[in-house]
Amino acid sequence: MKKIETLAMILAGGQGTRLGKLTRDIAKPAVPFGGKYRIIDFALSNCANSGIKNVGVVTQYQPLELNTHVGNGENWGLNTHDGGATILQPYSSVDGEKWFNGTAHAIYQNIDFINRYEPEYLLVLSGDHIYKMDYQNMIEFHKEKKAALTVGVIPVPLEEAPRFGIMNTDQTDRIIEFEEKPAEPKSNLASMGIYIFDWPMLKSYLIDNYAKNRTMEDFGKDVIPAYLRNSENVFAYAFKDYWKDVGTIESLWEANMEFLDPNHALNIRDSSWRIYTRNYSAPPQFLTKTSNVSDSMIVDGCYVAGEVKHSIVSPNVKIGKNSTIKDSLIMANVTIGENVTINCAIIGENAKIHDGAQLIGDPKNITVVGYAEEVGGLKDED
């Protein structure tokens, strides 16, 4: 196979336990977002728009929906004669290992796949963040610094820094210290989970470690400290645009509500940097004479007979008469009956909300209905 400069590996096997009901049946990167997208669409679109056409997608937990969604990368323009997306799942190796035990271990288990491309650089991405980023700018930074490893970082409020892995740098952006969720952080440069490695060096580190003590499982906990101990050239690339970790119910809801802003920093209508997804055929939306929609996104296939305010309504959702939806995300194929009130909520795919149900949350306590869950309606008597 032709040698390439950069191969991207998207780590998309996370369970996303903090998303509760929403990730009971699907992996976190496959969770719907913004009406028509899934979270992983942002990393895949960034690769396509950055000119990186060879992408490995590492899956593990509940991969069926994710695998179907990604396919061969056609919907992101990755299925070229010299590119494509490849699904990489755990498998039983000669030493008996079947599961990925961490981010670095997932890369180690896929060394044979990576070696097919002989990349000069390995771009490692998380599949569960919302952002637009030109990875070529980060690659150029990596080259200019002659770095062995470049870590994407984003400035966060200092009071939030204890939630993240923090990179402490000198005046040249060289990382001199890494702190994992420090109680008293020395800087506010939080790791974004985006890494550019010189592949030959990383491969050597991983193979040597697993041949000896097998302790190099995570990039943050193991690999970065090892590079720093050995005085490798490790640099921080500061990203200052919109980036959101949607790992909690509150942050997922907040990111969707921000998405409604026509002046949102993501600028979803920017034709020069599209966010692509797998599109499913659906009839046009239908708003009845009893409907009242304001400040909302209503996607194809929807039938709306009620009131929708500042909400996102995904494909093939039905909303009955006299129902009110406000400040909420309604995922695909949801049926909402009549006289229903939904406020500050996330309603999972294929859920059914019966007539008269009341689902009332607030921005600090979002109401969640899980995949195919039913709320209200008559109950069988014993």
TrEMBL record:
This is Glucose-1-phosphate adenylyltransferase. PANTHER family: GLUCOSE-1-PHOSPHATE ADENYLYLTRANSFERASE (PTHR43523:SF2), GLUCOSE-1-PHOSPHATE ADENYLYLTRANSFERASE-RELATED (PTHR43523). It is an enzyme of class 2 (transferase). InterPro entries: ADP-Glc_PPase (IPR011831), ADP_Glu_pyroP_CS (IPR005836), GlgC_bac (IPR023049), GlmU/GlgC-like_hexapep (IPR056818), NTP_transferase_dom (IPR005835), Nucleotide-diphossugar_trans (IPR029044), Trimer_LpxA-like_sf (IPR011004). Keywords: ATP-binding, Carbohydrate metabolism, Glycogen biosynthesis, Glycogen metabolism, Nucleotide-binding, Nucleotidyltransferase, Transferase. The record marks Q60, W99 as: Could play a key role in the communication between the regulatory and the substrate sites. Homotetramer. GO terms for molecular function: ATP binding; glucose-1-phosphate adenylyltransferase activity. Alpha-D-glucose 1-phosphate binds at G165, E180, K181, S191. Its EC number is 2.7.7.27. Gene3D superfamilies: Hexapeptide repeat proteins, Spore Coat Polysaccharide Biosynthesis Protein SpsA, Chain A. It catalyses: alpha-D-glucose 1-phosphate + ATP + H(+) = ADP-alpha-D-glucose + diphosphate. The gene is glgC. Involved in the biosynthesis of ADP-glucose, a building block required for the elongation reactions to produce glycogen. Catalyzes the reaction between ATP and alpha-D-glucose 1-phosphate (G1P) to produce pyrophosphate and ADP-Glc. Belongs to the bacterial/plant glucose-1-phosphate adenylyltransferase family. It comes from the Bacteria. Pathway: Glycan biosynthesis; glycogen biosynthesis. GO terms for biological process: glycogen biosynthetic process. Residues 8-260 form the Nucleotidyl transferase domain. The lineage of its organism: Bacteria, Bacillati, Bacillota, Bacilli, Lactobacillales. Residues 289-360 form the Glucose-1-phosphate adenylyltransferase/Bifunctional protein GlmU-like C-terminal hexapeptide domain.
